[in-house]
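Feature request disguised as a bug report, sorry. It would help if multi-protein outputs had a clear separator. Right now it looks like this:
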Amino acid sequence: MEIRPALFLDRDGVLNKDRGYVARVTDLEWVEGAMETVAAFKARAWFVFVVTNQTGIAHGLYTEEDMQAVHDHLLFEFGAHGAEIDRIYHCPFHPDGSEPRYARESLDRKPGPGMLLQAMADFPVRREGSFLIGDKPADIQAAHAAGVGGFLFEGGNLASFAEWALAAFEDGSR
């Protein structure tokens, strides 16, 4: 497989509207431009990964199986629109979790870079050409800790923002 850049995307607040804990398929509402963003970067032959903290699992609000059903639906919907996501990485851990199995620190939990580093170990990612779009400072911290660029998305059309971020990134702004 050829070495390629990657677009890392947070899930809640970037691909879908953040409604607190998105634990069911019925909770999903896509952010405007989300599918177009993924399709545009796939057309450029980029890898596209989702990296998402799933604290609700650690707090016992939903299970990993519930989350997987949401992710399966997400992958299906994006794929049906010609916007294939290469892989979704998630972190179910939180040090203050109420579920003992998930109540711990983890390098995977953003702002830790673990999910991004795992994606770069699993796929031939060109790190210096890659960046993340997230909606929280912890997302950007994780990107920088993993050695990739990071852009803070504060709402609006994700496709327009992603094109702006790509131009800024290529100009060396981030």
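(second protein starts here, but nothing in the output says so)
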Amino acid sequence: MSTTDPRAELVSLLPRLRRFAYGLTGEAHAADDLVQAGCLKAIERWHQWQPGTSLASWMFRILQTTWLDEYRTRQRQQTESDSEVLDELMGVDGRVVVEARSDARTVRRRIAELPEEQRVVLMMITVDGLSYKEAAAALEVPVGTVMSRLARARARLADALGGGAG
């Protein structure tokens, strides 16, 4: 059993939590807000964390749950406009820039359309770099389930982006 202060371990987890949050939100500012909200919830519920268990897994679950709650709220209030992005591009002479941003938006949109369980596994493994075993522990599912969800997420993305083999 580790004698390190779990609060210090929480601080050392912040970069990983931020990468995971960025993968979920797609925006740096929103990711920072999500990490802050998640840390606040963790501190408020510190008594619920069990020493000897993975603090990282506990924090990933808190971030995931917080994001999902906020995501559902935003879905009801969403009024996104692409005109703001177009205004930023005015004066820039570069079809490549516009196409790259369009491609990135398409990929983010396709990832957002994945079922939550697939999207979360995809983010944990590809963005945060967790192993299958670590992701399985964080989600409290078997490793095979993580592998299956990841394979389905990748196949769906490939099909949606026109790279499918079928």
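Even a blank line would do. Unrelated, but nice: The chain has two domains: 1-79, 95-161.
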